[in-house]
Amino acid sequence: MERQGTEAAVKKSERIQRLDERLRAAGVLHLRDAAEHLAVSEMTVRRDLAASPDLFSYLGGYILPAGGERATTYRLDAELDAHAEAKALAGRAAARLVEPDDTIFIDCGTTTPHMIEHLPVTGRLTVITYAMNIAARVASRPNTSLILLGGLFHASSQTFSGEEGLRSLERLGISKAFISAGGVHAQHGVTCSNFHEVPVKQAVLARAAIAYMVVDSSKMDKIKPAYFARAEQFAGILTELSD
């Protein structure tokens, strides 16, 4: 019995090490993907997570680094005035790519809201978002349908996260997606400050016919903690220099 218990403990330690390595590479993992990677049941992964609170957090079906929800100092209100002119120009450049009958996704942040006042008012535009600050502006527009993805609300970024919003995305078509980022780096890819945003961004990138990154140039060559994409997954990077 003692030998069997030792073998089980070794297997568990190996699983935790492999899960930690995979999470460091991916930034965030769905429980199902973690179970497939380790060739065990989801219940076994849950037990491993519960045994390792110093390494992992679990939220809405997703595995995050421990403290992932608290590890960021990003606050939407604190970012509003930073590089405001550049953000406005980047948002206007993005809006010019939208056609009257498009179904578009607009990401969270302080650059993408600048798109809204420049969007077409003819035709019937549909806007999908998980950001409250985007939804509030879109709601008052004429000839525009709003789809707000729900879930757990994060006040610091004014966003929602969780399985509910991800399931909604699976049923939606997206002609163009406009994705924000906190960092764009040639070697380390595209990153953001909040781990809970990663599943939504990745799901949208998988669903959209075409995706654009919308950032001001201060984000270039920067790295934030939550990785979510490679730069080549985007059709273009829209900055103030694109206007």
From TrEMBL:
This is Transcriptional regulator, DeoR family. It comes from the Bacteria. Pfam families: DeoRC, HTH_DeoR. Keywords: DNA-binding, Transcription, Transcription regulation. PROSITE patterns: HTH_DEOR_1, HTH_DEOR_2. One of its GO terms (molecular function) is DNA-binding transcription factor activity. PANTHER family: DEOXYRIBOSE OPERON REPRESSOR (PTHR30363:SF8), HTH-TYPE TRANSCRIPTIONAL REGULATOR SRLR-RELATED (PTHR30363). Residues 12-71 form the HTH deoR-type domain.
